[in-house]
Specification:
With 272 residues, the chain is an alpha/beta fold. It contains seven helices and 13 strands.
Length: 272
């Protein structure tokens, strides 16, 4: 059976056990005894079977929401330093997405945040904030961050990390990115910059409403070149031009590549 592992800066770790249709009845209750005595193992998450398919005409709940809750044993939450945010611990759990390559992740975060060229007085919109991988670095460089995330466990970790470190200037919003951007645009909200780090499926349906929020710069973090190309075309139609592209070799000797694209809305100057 596959096991997902995460390890904190203190070298203590936790594991997540995904459901296995071949496992005997009652295996979830017996799992903790199977892993007893492993040095440094402080917690375990036993994931439930996948939720049943949604009925016709209804949307399936996102991962981690709307279905059976995982079984938690011990304390499966680990902590590592948050990139570009001194004194802030980024919290992780083995069933919550996190970048596996720490050095590559820091390069990714630095490329995105440096590319926004924040001065410290901006209103920044962050879409798909997850557990806060970019959030706290953004907060260290801007006046206020509105961080949007739909997935429950990730958002819970981000909020806990912010509370522990007493991070000010971050407002977390539990919502679908496309829906919240449309709502903000309808309300007349304005932002100076935006960072988005969508899943492999990309950020389809976000570009047009995002353009109405008026960010001067956008940092798009991508793990899939195909959906990145699709979304960049939509952002170009919304008035943005790609200025910088930074690839990050997060998984050496594989075909996978992460990357950051910095987009700007041109400022037109008319001849006098």
């Amino acid at each position: 059976q596959d096991v997902d592992v995460c390890v904190g800066a203190d070298r203590k770790g936790a594991i997540a056990l995904p459901p296995d249709p071949r496992a005997p009845a009652g295996w979830a209750e017996k799992a903790p005894r199977t892993f007893e005595g492993i040095e440094g193992l402080q917690g375990m998450v036993v994931l439930p079977p996948p939720a049943a398919p949604a009925a016709k005409g209804r949307r399936a709940p996102p991962p981690g929401m709307g279905g059976p809750a995982p079984r938690i044993y011990g304390d499966p939450v680990v902590a590592r330093p948050a990139p570009l945010a001194e004194g802030v611990a980024l919290l992780g759990r083995p069933d919550v997405f996190a970048q596996a390559n720490a050095a590559g992740n820091e390069a990714l975060v630095r490329a995105a945040i440096d590319g926004l060229a924040l001065r410290g007085d901006e209103q920044v919109l962050e879409l798909f904030c997850g557990a806060g991988n970019f959030t706290f670095g953004l907060a260290a460089r801007s006046a206020h961050v509105t961080a949007v995330e739909l997935e429950g466990a990730s958002l819970d970790l981000a909020r806990r990390a912010a509370a522990r470190a007493r991070v000010e200037g971050v407002r977390f919003v539990a919502a679908d990115a496309a829906r919240v951007v449309e709502d903000f645009a309808r309300e007349g909200r304005r932002f100076d910059a935006c960072l988005l780090d969508p899943p492999r499926s990309g950020a389809k349906g976000v570009a047009e409403a995002l353009g109405r929020l008026g960010p001067r710069r956008i940092a798009y973090v991508s793990c899939d070149p195909a959906t990145l190309a699709r979304d960049l075309a939509a952002l170009r139609s919304a008035g943005y031009e790609a200025r910088i592209a930074v690839p990050v070799d997060m998984f050496p000797q594989t075909f996978h590549v992460e990357g950051v694209v910095i987009l700007e809305r041109p400022t037109w100057k008319h001849a006098s």
